[in-house]
């Protein structure tokens, strides 16, 4: 991997509740370079909290701590909120899960994308509009001028995903965090969105954190994979080697997936071992700890 854009060590995310402290992320560490890093695991494993903590989007009663969280030389824990706003969106962007519902329903989609550009660039309205139309074309939207003037309820799910991608990518960030950007789409549209992401990441030399439940998708799309369980990382490996995973949790997830080449009458159900919560982890096929 090239020089990392983001280095995280000892990241913890906790929520203080009336019934006690809930540990959503427990002391994880990882690096992201100009590559596609997949983060997979079940719901509640800490994937989204990891992505949101990088952008400091977790508010009280949430609490984020890290021994080290550095992006391109910037200590994300030490800088003030004004400096963080310069990074958030401009240098690091995040496409939220089911992003169409993150759009302002009473504002034209083109104006929302242009606003994201105007916030981070000192340009005029006409230049922002031109840049927005170019960005809509880049995410493979036909007739960008027509779509510019539509409201969110007038666009389909797939088009809404592309609009949000355009909004996040228009400031030309160095790192994009995509939280299940294809979860609400059918297979055909999903593959189109992934192809767009792949092209943009490759052409612009960006880094991508791709959060997903879909192990097969991550194995074919990403360069490296992190598997999370109960708030911690239990295995890391090359995406091409995911199907040869060594940790029993990852093996259980893979076994629960249907396969065309090996149909079974009943899919396997994952049997969880309490020892996985704090037990050894697997790094590139080797047990550690």
Could you characterize the architecture of this molecule?
There is one protein chain. Strand 5 and strand 6 form a beta hairpin. It contains 9 helices and 13 strands. The chain starts with 5 loop residues before the first strand and ends with a strand. The longest helix is centred in the last third of the chain and has 18 residues. Helix 3 crosses helix 4, helix 3 runs parallel beside helix 6 and helix 6 packs parallel to helix 7.
Secondary-structure element pattern, one letter each: EEEHEEEHEHHHHEHEHEEHEE
Oligomeric category: single chain
Strand content: 25-35%
Helix content: 25-40%
Low-confidence stretches: none
| Strands, total number | 13
- Give the termini separation: 24 Å
Shape: globular
Largest sheet geometry = 8 strands, mixed
Structural class comes to: alpha/beta
Please give the radius of gyration in angstroms.
20 Å
Query: How are the strands of the biggest sheet laid out side by side?
Result: 7-8-9-3-10-11-12-13
Provide a concise account of the structure shown.
The chain is built from 9 helices and 13 strands. By secondary structure, it is of the alpha/beta class.
Task: Map the helices and strands.
Elements (H helix, E strand, L loop, with lengths): L5 E12 L2 E13 L3 E5 L6 H8 L7 E4 L2 E4 L2 E2 L5 H7 L4 E4 L13 H12 L4 H14 L5 H5 L8 H13 L5 E5 L7 H18 L2 E6 L2 H7 L2 E6 L2 E7 L9 H8 L25 E3 L2 E3 L1
Parallel strand pairs: 3-9, 3-10, 7-8, 8-9, 11-12
Antiparallel strand pairs: 1-2, 1-4, 1-5, 5-6, 10-11, 12-13
